[in-house]
Design brief:
Elements: H1 22-26, H2 30-39, H3 47-53, H4 60-64, H5 69-90, H6 99-115, H7 131-147, H8 151-155, H9 165-174, H10 184-191, H11 203-219, H12 221-231, H13 235-257, H14 264-280, H15 290-300, H16 312-316
Helix pairs in contact: 5-6, 5-7, 6-7, 7-11, 7-13, 9-15, 11-13, 11-14, 13-15, 14-15
Length: 317
């Protein structure tokens, strides 16, 4: 996912059932496992028909099919992988990608995920484990990749931002695990890309992106910086990077074009982002562009002495 590398196991070749429930995985004895396995229908449908049903708009199977937290993680990971593959083949003139089908699949997965009561208590300290919490991070990344492909910037990146020196150093330090192949000028052009236009389809990605930012802000950015790697999966680091890049580019487009033509939904999102950012940075300069402030808040999660720093050398190697 980080380096935009296709999976070594094609989805078409997977003919296994989805994993069983977390309770069965955690059973300490064979009798306890047998009781759990036979007391209720196990949420272990075959992967292929379950995955295919996600793309059906009027499928009763997609609306009623349930699977375990681990199964949901596998399903959204596969969907994210298929979206990445779609961008690869979309450049071929002979292939026409039906992107609406991915909207349907994302919506069906979210309905199934929301239908599981355990997903309502998702979080790094959930008594049901962190699998649903990690799956939600991949869902947010997949929602963004559905409308905007940032994978090429994840594979090789140097980030230079139109902000003060302190913010610049902090953000560059945060992404030091990326390869130094794309120039700073290219990154500036990305953030200020004139071809990036706001449109209604972006709302479906903006809402989960705001949720991704809201979680560390409400928990406390400094607390997350010190403890996140003890409880959160590494997927959150990579997915939140795409969230930061997408939201910053969206805010840059507003700062470039003005707020006169904002829809009601977009105005609410800008208001929410402003409240979250100034809640996280209470002493921030009100004149600072929101796009720059957002990247500063994002970089704060990895600033100073924190356990995430031990992960970056592993990634770079």
């Amino acid at each position: 996912m980080l380096y935009d590398i296709p999976t070594s196991l094609p989805i078409s070749e997977i003919s296994l059932p989805l994993p069983s429930s977390e309770e069965e995985w955690s059973a300490e004895t064979s009798s306890e496992w047998s009781t759990l396995h036979t007391s209720t229908p196990p949420p272990t449908p075959l992967f292929k028909p379950a995955f295919e049903s996600l793309f059906l708009e009027t499928s009763p199977i997609a609306q009623t099919l349930r699977y375990s937290e681990f199964g949901g993680y596998i399903m959204i990971s596969a969907l994210n992988s298929v979206i990445m593959n779609a961008y690869r083949v979309a450049s071929t003139p002979a292939i026409d990608v039906n992107w609406h089908k991915f909207d349907v699949a994302l919506d069906n997965w979210q309905r199934s995920w929301n239908a599981d009561p355990k997903s309502h208590s998702t979080g790094p300290s959930s008594p049901f484990g962190a699998m649903a919490f990690n799956a939600s991070a991949i869902y947010r990344a997949a929602s963004i990749r559905r409308v905007r492909d940032y994978s090429k910037y994840l594979s090789s990146l140097t980030l230079l931002l139109p902000c003060n020196d302190l913010t610049l150093r902090r953000v560059k330090a945060t992404v030091q695990f990326m390869d130094d192949k794309i120039s700073s000028e290219e990154m500036l052009r990305t953030l200020n890309d004139p071809t990036f236009h706001r449109c209604p389809k972006l709302i479906r990605a903006l809402v989960p992106a705001c949720v991704s930012l809201q979680i560390p802000v409400k928990m406390g950015v400094k607390l997350v910086a010190q403890t996140a790697a003890l409880f959160w999966s590494v997927e959150h680091v990579f997915c939140n990077f795409e969230v930061a890049l997408f939201l910053s580019q969206w805010l840059c487009s507003i700062e470039r074009e003005g707020t006169a033509n904002l829809s009601n939904e977009e105005a609410k999102i800008v208001s929410l982002l402003r409240d979250l950012l100034f809640e996280a940075e209470t002493e921030a300069d009100p004149k600072l562009p929101l796009s720059c402030l957002l990247l500063t808040v994002w970089a704060d999660q990895f600033d100073g002495v924190n356990v995430w720093g031990s992960i970056f050398p592993c990634v770079s190697s």
